[in-house]
């Protein structure tokens, strides 16, 4: 059975090279949906890492933004029809794993520019797997971009880089805010979201935020946190 991921010209997984734990976890997730690395369809994209935050909210936020921009630039240069962007803390839920063919068939019949397969919004359930959404959206851990807007997104992101944070037209910000600002300024862009979500962020230490909780320095408490995260992951996957 073809994987849902095969629907896209190219899929990218943003991963800091030193985060081998996340790479290994992501490889296991892909195997659940029939994708085995290395793959011609999936590229492990080395995340951009900076030492200064510049105008961005944090060093990690700047790196995440630049990583997405680099992928969009590459997609533009290669003339790709669509791309799927996954961040390396993504986990697929059982609904996605078991219903790939039906989801692909449904998506093929829809018109869309941006597709959020993972999000944290509360929406009313529908009889369809995807519904239109016009409000701001948080998180970019499981996001598809159609070729219809790739070039425009590259231009918009490059404009953001030239502006200070807080600029009325959109300055340096978190990448999810950049995508939402682009959508707000271009209301004709068709955005769909999965209902319910098909993937979620795996509980793990974030690279976007530099702060480290005090309990990570205590082995016993660190182990308890790991167990709690494993339970949380199991519960989310069953949704």
Please give a structural write-up.
This protein has 239 residues and is of the alpha/beta class. The protein has helices at 20-32, 59-78, 94-98, 100-108, 147-161, 175-185, 219-237; strands at 10-15, 42-46, 82-87, 90-92, 114-116, 130-132, 142-146, 191-194, 199-201. It has a seven-stranded mixed beta sheet with strand order 2-1-3-7-5-8-6, with helices on both faces. Strands 4-9 form a two-stranded antiparallel sheet. Strand 1 (10-15), helix 1 and strand 2 form a beta-alpha-beta unit. Helix 2 crosses helix 5. The model is unreliable at 208-213 and 220-237 (pLDDT under 50).
Rg: 18 Å
What does the largest sheet look like? 7 strands, mixed
CATH topology: Spore Coat Polysaccharide Biosynthesis Protein SpsA, Chain A
Estimated share of beta-strand residues: 15-25%
- In total, the number of strands is 9
For the record, the CATH architecture stands as Alpha-Beta Complex
How would you summarize the topology of this molecule?
Blueprint (H helix, E strand, L loop, with lengths): L9 E6 L4 H13 L9 E5 L12 H20 L3 E6 L2 E3 L1 H5 L1 H9 L5 E3 L13 E3 L9 E5 H15 L13 H11 L5 E4 L4 E3 L17 H19 L2
Parallel strand pairs: 1-2, 1-3, 5-8
Antiparallel strand pairs: 3-7, 4-9, 5-7, 6-8
Short description:
The protein is of the alpha/beta class. Helices cover 38% and strands 16% of the residues.
Quick tags:
globular, Spore Coat Polysaccharide Biosynthesis Protein SpsA, Chain A, disordered C terminus, 7 helices, two-stranded antiparallel sheet, 239 residues, alpha/beta
């Amino acid at each position: 059975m073809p994987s849902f991921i095969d629907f896209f010209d190219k899929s990218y997984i943003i991963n800091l090279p030193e985060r081998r734990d996340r790479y290994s976890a992501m490889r296991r997730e892909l195997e659940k949906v029939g994708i085995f690395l290395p793959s011609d369809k999936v590229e492990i994209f080395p995340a951009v890492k900076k030492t200064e935050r510049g105008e961005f909210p944090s060093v990690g936020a700047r790196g995440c933004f630049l990583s997405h921009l680099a992928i969009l630039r590459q997609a533009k240069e290669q003339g790709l029809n669509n791309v799927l962007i996954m961040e390396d803390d993504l986990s697929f839920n059982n609904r996605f794993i078991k219903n790939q063919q039906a989801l692909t068939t449904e998506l093929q019949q829809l018109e869309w520019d941006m597709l959020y397969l993972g999000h944290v919004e509360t929406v009313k359930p529908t009889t369809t797997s995807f519904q239109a959404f016009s409000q701001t959206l948080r998180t970019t851990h499981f996001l598809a971009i159609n070729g219809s807007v790739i070039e425009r997104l590259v231009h918009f992101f490059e404009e953001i880089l030239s502006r200070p944070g807080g600029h009325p037209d959109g300055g340096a910000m978190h990448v999810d805010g950049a995508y939402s600002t682009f959508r707000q300024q271009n209301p004709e862009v068709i955005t769909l979201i999965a209902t319910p979500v098909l993937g979620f962020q795996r509980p793990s230490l974030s690279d976007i935020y530099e702060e480290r909780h005090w309990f990570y320095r205590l082995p016993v408490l660190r182990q308890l946190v790991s167990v709690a995260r494993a339970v949380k992951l199991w519960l989310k996957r069953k949704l």
